[in-house]
Records
---
Amino acid sequence: MRQTSFGPMAIGLALALIAGACGSGGGQDTAPAATATPTTATPTTTAAPTTTAAPPTTAAPTTTTEPPWTAEDTWDMCAVFGVGGRKDGGLNQATWMQHERFRIKLASDPYHRYREDFGAATVHRTETSDDFSADDAIDRYAAVGCDVVVTSGRDLHQATADAANRHPDLVVLGVDQWFVQHTNQLYGFHFPGETGGLLAGALAASLTNSDTVAILVDGDGGPAADAWQAGFEAGVAHADDTVTVLAVDATGDGAAAARVALDQGADVVFAADPDHSDPALVEVAGQAGAYCIGIGTDRWKAVPDAQPCLVTSIVKAIERSTVTSLTPLFAVYTYRIMGRFSDVEGETLEPGNHALDVELAPFHDHEDAVPAEVVEMLAALDDATRALYGHG
């Protein structure tokens, strides 16, 4: 490990960044054979005309035919998951668990103090596919009367923004999404790349022996993904401005992107594309002497094959509070309840972009590779940037 000295913090942070669908047979008219008996031949029975099959009834959209599960006196939460589905082992799964925990809370000790006749919650989910898009899912949920639609993942950020325009009265909440323009009841809950990327970059620059580090970027991630790259570059510059930063698009193939970075000399790789991070980590783990940094949740147990290189992960802590003291679902809940009932009091969160928390996972078996002065530097950076977003 190279000895690194750290000067005063001089970081320019860009702040303008950063829920499945659910005939008849035709007879033949055959003339009877001639008969020699004087008995009058029984008249030939004319075959009943072939019944024309009724044209197939066009199935009504599921948004209008399926039994509704929503009700006026329940808080109905509907979630849409993209790449990886609900059980992706990462952010999507954490988002779903937040729905479940919140539903249980309302059932067990509801925040009935807000309104006795509005306490129970329901949850419903849809995983997108080639045959059922996020647009389809959100439109379906809007039609059945969901109180809030939550979409999870950067890959759904455009569908989420479009839905807010189509359904002005629908509360639409995008997790891991940041929106340049906000319309109607659109919420963007993002994990600030200025913080997460910054920590990853500073750590990478402190560990490299080749003077080259890499970030594998999410090419389809929109502004939120751009913020992570900017944060990473700022973190590298803060720790050692002589280190070269490679940015490789990991869209579609994280392992291939990691191989490109390694072949170009990087010996520390931040796999920042959440949809393709795990294969990238495994690829880096095959290179002796290289380090890797995961994203989303602590990937140590989730991707054991990555442990040889996995020094830490940047954890997107959706269970932590927002800029209020509330988790996202509860904050939006109180906002909507206050809108419905004028006698309700409590913290609220209006539509717009809101930062969630990020943090470093433990260093696990690589603790000895991170010197004490680097740990102190990372803590100072974390404290400085956390204050920007109201996190204590």
---
Amino acid sequence: MRLLSLAFLFALPLAGQVPAGAPKPRLELADTARRVPMPPAARPIPAPAVRDTGVAAVRTLLRSSFVRRQGLLGVVLYGPSFAMTVADKPVPMTAAYLVMAGGSFLAAAEIARDLQITDGMELLATVAPIEGGAIGAALQYAATGSKDVAPGVFFGSMLGTTGALTLGRRLSTGAAMASVAGANVAALLAMGTMYAFDEHYTQDRTRAGVGAGAAIAGMQLGAMYATYASYNITAGDVQTLWTSSLIGAAGGGALVANGHPGHKKTTLAFMGGAVAGLAAGDRLLVRRIDHSRGDAMLVGAGAVAGALMGSGIAVIVGSSARYNAATAGLGAAGAVGGVWMAERWLGARPDAGRRLGARLTVSPGSLAFAAARVPGTYSIMRFAF
């Protein structure tokens, strides 16, 4: 019996050995080894490798309207003025132009990456370089009398862009648009007044300097007008003021269209009508209605259509002169009717205003401390003007 047991013990490991040449069995230690393999048709197909050619990065940059506009300004404003400032021969001018045009695009891309560009900053950074270039050119002409004003244009545009990015971050789109409009209106009024009283047309340099100074002051006044007004002012509201001022100027021209009143009376009549149109637009349009920029364009189109109709009626009635009091007056009246029709078609869009609840702030905690007679100084109420 013992011999049989010993024989069984020696035979068991020998039976477990794998014959020579036979494959070794797989040792299954987990459930994953017993899973059914996925059929080839159901296996996921790996996505093909996409080669990065840099096009995606360029598209990302061009999606930013700030980068696009600054790049365009580099092509049409920064580049030409810089080239004419630093060179006077074709080859160096071309090189300087390419450097500034390309550098403008790269600088705009870097600024857009590092700064949060608000709508007010973007709008102001688009228009302020043009305004700054005009102001710089006027100041250089006033100081030197030379008509080569490329340096003034270049440095003025650079200062305009810098000021827009620095000061524009706290301005709304309405305030930014009002700032630009204020500069233009102030410059036109100042230069127009000097032109009206310049009998011999000899004060060109003085008029340019005064216009540049008035534009700088008007930019600040325009921003203050939109910021501190008791009613809401949008970018479209400011655009409608241009329409109303042109209608007023046409009405003022009707007063001096007949006869030969001279340049003084003519200039003052147009300017007086424009100012009256601004006041009427502020009272009747801006204070009552909030306009988008699309609304303002439609209002302007209505004014143009109405003015053409009114002038056409004046011609049909029998006016022999191309421009006289009847043509100007009926044209202005038709423009007013066109504005009314456009506003009626757009529907009711009441002004949002600066409500008392938004301007008046009460601190409950300070009221509680004051009621408990806790010693100290507390701001119970704040009122924003």
